[in-house]
Each structure stands twice: as structure tokens, then as C-alpha cells.
Amino acid sequence: MFFSKTSLESGIKVVTESIPHVRSVALGFWVGVGARDEIEGLSGMSHFIEHLLFKGTKNRSAKEISETIDTLGGEINAFATKEYTCFYTRLLDEHIPVGVEILSDMLQNPLFKEEDISAEKEVVVEEINLHEDTPDEKIHDLFASTLLGDHPLGKSTLGYVNTVKNFNREGVLSFFSRGYAPKNIVIAAAGHLDHQQIVDLIEKHFAPREEGRFVRKEFKPKVEPKVFICQKRTEQAHICYGTQALHARDEGRFALSILDNILGGGMSSRLFQEIREKRGLVYSVYSYHSLFSETGLIAIYAGTRPSKVEEVIKLIQKEIKSIAEKGISREELHRAKEFLKGQLVLSMESTSNRMTRLGKSELVHREILSLDELVERIDKVTLGDIHKLAKILLAPEKMTLTIIGPAEVKTAANLVA
Predict the structure, then answer these.
(1) Rounded to whole angstroms, how far apart are CA atoms 355 and 368?
(2) 40 an active-site residue?
(3) How much is the pTM?
(4) Do 263 and 398 belong together in one domain?
(5) Among 153, 165, 234, 341, whose Cα sits 20 to 30 Å from the Cα of 130?
(6) Is the pLDDT of residue 249 over 60?
(7) Overall number of domains in the chain
(8) Mean pLDDT taken over the chain
């Protein structure tokens, strides 16, 4: 694994990884602004602007953007998160100058026409409505907002119907000019490329701007255990149970990945085996963790019949308590390490995954580790590290519970102190 990094005079950072044996290049423009950076009344603006940048520029229409990439056999897309927004394309190596030029154009010369803003507000409202009608997705937003409360990380990335409907061109321009300044952008590329060529193309197509960097206020949330039940007539009850965890640059994040995998990371995990395989109480049960700038979270999801909610929660609590009090076995530790290393190596076969790793590492973790360094960090984790972390994170008195389901699930609130 070989990567190169250049900081341009404009403030943009360019990070690339050369993969000589492939014929494609994945290119991403990573902007360090997301849902957490939206002031009151602007919730969903990062996601909204992500949509708008595909509506056309001073140099090409929305149709021309898509047709150009389609004609080259490539792909172009974007996504917004709580802490960053990414615009990316994947093309044959010979077409990368076109990809750089189009993405640069989109991020520098959007039209933000009134009619496009008006139309896209309706599109995003429908996207929010779809999300609201998908409880196995909605539950995760509900959990984050319940756990983190008024902290900016508790906001929904999509925004809310009442805020999106009130968006206007003035607000869009103001947010864009601050958040999309070159000093807040990382450009990552992986594939059959030459680093200096990418740097030269960025310098050619991305003009310096005077705007200052978007200033993010970072502070740890005050987290207290809570229970929130959203009553909704659903066939299944959707459960999310968890607590605050580590931030993105915490050295303990490698131990957290292993703990997460053992708890609910796959078909051999404790939760899957105990709740699905042995008892058949769920179709889907898993755990996950998220790392942010100053905090993080670890959560367990399960979907079950409303009549089985309390039983499922008790089983989740039992497994959490067991790991926190007794730790894990050497066999579990070995299996989790090998799984993580295997997944890491397999992911490296994709230029898109490599590009994503570079962009996120530079923007969020603020360090880029080689494959050997990552494997070394994973291998260094001990049984004691896992036990210590589990005792700290998985204490029963720290847990937050959220449920979406019919009225009868209300009694489950009694299971959380």
C-alpha cells in the first residue's frame, strides 16, 4: 500500500494511492461539513446542498453532468453524513481528467436556481417521508437523538420536513460559501494514477477562494440513560439499545471494533447465536459503532414481534453483562481479529473502498495508516483491553433504549433503570 499527500496553496489536501494493476480510478471530493454543523433552522442543509450540486453549473446542465459520465462508462454520486459530505466518481484511468473537471465544476460553480431549490425541497421531503415510513432505518436516528440529546451529533442528516420546507436561496448560498471553502476539502483518489497528475488537475480546475474555513464547535455531549418509545402501528417492534463510546482518534477504537464484532458483528456473534439461532426470536439482530470527532456510540439493533420485546431486551442485557463482568474468551478474540483483518484485506480489492479509506482517514482520523499498521494495531489488542473497555462502556446504568412499535411495547421501559 503506497499513498502520497500534497497540501495545495489553496488549502486543499490531495491524498492518492497508486494501484498499478487496475485500469480504473476512484476519485472523491470530501468536504468537512455535515449535519452537526447546521444551525437552528438549517437542519438538513448539508444533505440538501449535496442534492443541489447535481442540478447544474455555470458550464453544464444537470443532464450534461450525468450524460458525460454515462458516456465514459463511469459512475458519479454523493452522500452526506453528520460530519462530512462526499462527492465521488469512478472512471477508467484515461478519463480521470474529465472526472476532476466535472467535480471541480460542481463544487465551484453551482447555479442554485430558485426553481431547482423549490423542486428539490419536494424531493427531499419525500425522501424524509420514506425514511419515516421505514422503521428499521428510522430507529437509528431516534436512538442517536435520544442518546445525544441537544448535541449537534444528535441531528438527522436528512433534516426535518419543517426545516427543509423553509430553505431558501439565501440560506443555501450562505451555508455553501462557508462550508465548501478549499481549506475544508480533502481530495482522495485511488487506482491507476499518477499523484502529480491529480495535483496538477486540481490546481488547474480548482481556483483559490478567499472564504475562511468553516469553524466547527467541538464539545462532548452530556449523556444520561434514557428510554424513548415511539408508538407506531408496525408488525415488528424495532429496538435500539446502547450508549456513548469512543471518538474517532481514540487509540481504543481498535479494541472497540473487536468488541463490536464479538457482540453482534456477524453470524458467529453472541447476539446472533443467542437470539436468532437458538431461540428464533428475530430475523435481524446486530451491533454497530460510530466514531465522531469528540465522541461516539455503540448500539444494538433487533427487530422482533411486539410480544417478544421484553424477552429480546433481557437477552441483550444478559450478553452485555456477561462480557462486561467476565470478559471474552481467547477463541473469540482470535476469531474477531482474523475476521477484521480478513475484511480489511478484502476491502482493499476495491478502488472505491481504498479511496473512501483515504478520505475518511485524512478528514476524520487525521492520520492514514498502512495496511500493515492497521493489522499491527488490531493484533496488539489483548483480552485485558477488551474487558476493560467493556466494563467502562457496557455498564447497565449507562444504557439508552429506543423502540418503535405498537402500544403494547410500552412495558419494556421498565427493563431499563
Answers:
(1) 12
(2) no
(3) 0.94
(4) yes
(5) 153
(6) yes
(7) 2
(8) 94
